[in-house]
Amino acid sequence: MTLELLLSALGCGLLCYTLGRYNRAVVLQRWEFVLGAPEKQAIDSLRQRMAVDSALTRQALEAADRAREARPPDALTVLRVALSVLEEAGADRLTRLRAMGVYSRMVRAISPLPPPSATPFKDPSLRATASAAGLVHRVLVGTQERFRLWLLMLGLGVRIVLRGGRRSADAAGREPQQRRHWQDFAREVDDFEALDACHLTAFEALVASLAAVDRGGRLRLWERIVGDAG
Amino acid sequence: MSELQVALAHAVGLAVLVLLVGLFVRGRAGLCWSFPAYALAILVGNTLATFSPDRFYTPEAWVLKQGVYDILKMAVTLELAWRAFAAFPGAMRTARLTLLALLTVSTLVLGALTPSSTYGDLWAWEPGTVTATLWLLTATALLVVWYQVPVHAWPRAIMLGLAPYLLVFVVALGVLKHHGWFPRYDWASILDSAAYLALLLFWNRVVWRRDPAGAAAAAAGKAA
After folding, report:
1. Is there a contact between B214 and A9 if contact means CB atoms under 8 Å apart?
2. What phi, psi does A109 have (nearest 5°)?
3. What was the pLDDT predicted at A149?
4. pLDDT reading at B168 higher than 60
5. What distances in angstroms separate CA A212 from CA A142, B10, B224, one per listed residue?
6. CA dist., res. B35 & res. A46, Å (int)
7. Which of A10, B90, B107, B149 is deepest in the core (most CB within 10 A)?
């Protein structure tokens, strides 16, 4: 009896937690996006966003580097600006990765992605993460699982880069004359750009998978979904 | 039957009747056809026990009645899962495997662990059966959220309401098992009826409520 009581309490708790947080309006919006899949537009918009983030960070970093010898306090202020741009871009990437995880469960099949590789990265932790993900990728069979592994690797990568960026900026604040800290920050920016390239590849794979559903099938599914919702 | 029990039974009967009417008036019955059958069985069981307690308010009648309710609750659970995943073949395959595994494991566990019962103490099976039903609901809910399957407010309310009630029911059965059937049956029955009345009020609220969000989504979908 105690076992049944415990199991019932656990099941009831899980159900109330998951269904209590379930929001049908949000789910319908997500399906509307999936079935309406604005393929090229979505990819172009992400590419532009990444280019702007990268240009802003690079510009701030270069300005900070130029001011480093002459006016270290100003250089540090500009470096903090570069870090804030990187942090904002990182938050955007993490949000998109979470959404991509949700959407990846809504399609039947995902376009295959190559195994993650450490080659484009410079940070040792990031290289180790990418290498480990590359190994796990070979063990997994399904394209959906492999896609989620990519998302996990990218999420960890963004966190590693942001942590590294903060550490370098703090170190540069303590020892502004040490060129090494500035180089470390520049390395994190390089890694962030490499992660962005991988992010774009994963996004393209997801969008291609969404687009793979034929138009008639999409309409039928949408009618079914809305019919059930009405 | 005490006066309180009779009052609760009448309230439950009335609430089930209002719910049944609401299901058809608001067009919710088609979202899960086995649910009206379950509600009807509750109404019949409740009416018999209230108006003819000598014959139908007995442990034997309770066991028979509960068997019917259990079958119908299981049918409601499986129909909810089937309807939720019918349009999504990938999710449907996982749901079929998960629910089949749960049904198999719970049947094996019930068969192996529950002591052999006579007709008089057949209710010893009940906590296990209820737990299995609850886990079928939980698995369906988890899969709905994992695959982002759109479900109507009514099936969601069935699951959200039934699960806590089933937990209360298992607790009430625990009280009966611990303290014995006859001295405590009335108290366990009051606890169960009060919880069921609360559940029916919740279901009535959802069934009778108009659904502007759903109507707007439907209109938007047709326009798109």
Report:
1. no
2. -145, 145
3. 93
4. yes
5. 17, 56, 20
6. 47
7. B149
Q: How far apart are CA B190 and CA B57, in angstroms?
A: 13
> Is some CB atom of chain B closer than 8 A to the CB atom of A218?
no
| Domain chopping of chain B, boundaries | 3-208
The total of structural domains in chain A comes to 1
At which residue do the structure tokens 């399906």 appear?
A: A31
Report the pLDDT averaged over residues A168-189. 87
What are the C-alpha distances in Å from B198 to residues A184, A187, B12?
Answer: 62, 61, 9
Q: Which range of residues forms the domain containing residue A175?
A: 38-212
Largest alpha-carbon pair distance within chain B?
63
Q: Do A226 and B221 touch (CB under 8 A)?
A: yes
A229 in a domain, yes or no?
A: no
Q: How far is B123 from chain A (nearest CA, A)?
A: 12
Contact B170 A20 (CB under 8 A): no
Contact B7, B50 (CB under 8 A): no
Instruction: Indicate whether A71 belongs to any domain.
Output: yes
Distance CA A114, CA A143 (A): 10
